[in-house]
TrEMBL record:
Name by which UniProt lists this protein: Alanine racemase
Residues found modified as N6-(pyridoxal phosphate)lysine: K37
Keywords assigned by UniProt, alphabetized: Isomerase, Pyridoxal phosphate
Domain of life: Bacteria
InterPro entries in the record: Ala_racemase, Ala_racemase/Decarboxylase_C, Ala_racemase_C, Ala_racemase_N, Ala_racemase_pyridoxalP-BS, PLP-binding_barrel
Keyword Hydrolase tagged: no
Gene label: alr
Binding site for substrate: R135, M311
Catalytic activities: L-alanine = D-alanine
The organism of origin for this protein: SAR324 cluster bacterium
Pathway: Amino-acid biosynthesis; D-alanine biosynthesis; D-alanine from L-alanine: step 1/1
């Protein structure tokens, strides 16, 4: 049962539409991975992934071992790749839950080898190459050492090789192409001794923006949710934003001119004003930095935020909205009567990225799937 008049509508049909758009951009023989880390970028990993599987996705990608276990406990059976790092406490989960780890360093390889040897297991791994991200991955020197002494890792099977683009969403290919070159050079070294099944470089932006990234596994992250990786794409696909963030007006008040509103008195009414209190705040992921700087939609009009956003509420000036009433619907992200507010628009106001906007919408906001 839903008690709050604030919730996130997640359109699963939009998820399917977006996946189909990317499916058209990759080779027919290739597979798609749905990246559902951070609870599906705030959309809800389990419902999104189940729909993505219906749409033909055959891999899932997560950042944390806890995320992978949650998927398995929900009945997800497709391969799950743990894209992030892991600690020794996670080792038993790889075999118990059938999770494929990414090995990104000599230390991570040794830890996994020691565990697999003790348990008399052979574990399939994907190895990650650092081609320019500078975050996780084998550099050229450590990769050579790993491969040269691979007899010391006889309980590991290299089933995949991957890298990650740092700048595929910038509209200029030059650095990404340098990453492709480094990856192909390293891949040829791996293939001297091993026969990995899966080769993957491309994230969402890399699928359409970087030529020559023709592996056989493509990782669709932010684009699956209808969010463009950036505004600089040369070859954008037609996406549908999957979320609509709705709230309700819980009180209306008439104020004369020169009345301070909310904490800190950062806003004073400039005229007799009708002010609406909305039942969402920064504890829900609605940034306090939107105070006095952004807007919402009420009855098909953009109305400004006035005063500081509070933990559980914020205020809108609805003076110019005819007929406004308590319980009226407020759109924070989404469309209403031909107007829209996108996560990207909010991100631009906050000088961040749309990824952060959707990921920060808190668990206090129920998700409803349509």
């Amino acid at each position: 049962m839903r008690y709050r008049r604030a919730y996130l509508e997640v359109s699963l049909s939009a998820i399917v539409h977006n996946l189909r758009q990317y499916r058209q951009e990759i080779p027919e023989h290739a597979a798609m991975m749905a990246v559902v880390k951070a609870d599906g970028y705030g959309h809800g990993a389990i419902p999104v992934l189940k729909k993505a599987i219906e749409a033909g996705v055959t891999w899932a990608g997560v950042a944390l071992i806890e995320e992978a276990i949650e998927l398995r406990n929900a009945g997800i059976e497709i391969p799950i790749l743990l894209l992030g790092s892991w600690f020794p406490e996670a080792l038993p989960a790889f075999s118990q839950y059938g999770i494929t780890p990414v090995v990104h360093s000599l230390d991570s390889a040794q830890g996994l080898q020691d565990y697999a040897k003790r348990q008399n297991l052979r574990i399939k791994i994907h190895i990650k190459l650092d081609t320019g991200m500078g975050r996780l991955g084998f550099c050229e020197k450590s990769l050579v050492e790993f491969l040269t002494h691979f007899s010391n890792y006889d309980h590991l099977i290299i089933d995949g090789v991957m890298t990650h683009f740092s700048s595929a969403d910038e509209g200029v290919e030059s650095f990404s192409q340098e990453q492709v070159r480094k990856f192909n050079q390293a891949l040829s070294l791996v293939k001297r001794w091993h026969h990995p099944t899966w080769i993957h470089l491309a994230n969402t932006a890399g699928i359409t923006e970087v030529s020559g990234t023709r592996g056989n596994l493509f990782r669709v992250g932010i684009g699956m949710y209808g969010q463009p990786p950036s505004a600089c794409l040369v070859n954008p696909v037609q996406l549908r934003e999957a979320i609509t963030w709705k709230a309700g007006i819980i009180q209306l008040q008439q104020h004369p001119a020169h009345v301070p509103l909310s904490y800190g008195r950062t806003f004073y009414t400039q005229r007799p004003s009708q002010i609406a209190t909305v039942c969402v705040g920064y504890a829900d992921g609605y940034s306090r930095r939107l105070s006095n700087e952004f807007y919402a939609l009420v009855r098909g009009q953009k109305v400004p935020i006035v005063g500081n956003v509070c933990m559980d509420m914020f205020l809108l000036d609805v003076t110019n909205v005819p007929g406004v009433e308590v319980n009226d619907e407020v759109i924070l992200i989404g469309q209403q009567q031909g107007l829209s507010i996108t996560a990207s628009e909010m991100a631009e106001q906050l000088q961040t990225i749309n990824y952060e906007i959707t990921c920060r919408i808190s668990k206090r906001i129920p998700r409803i799937y349509t």
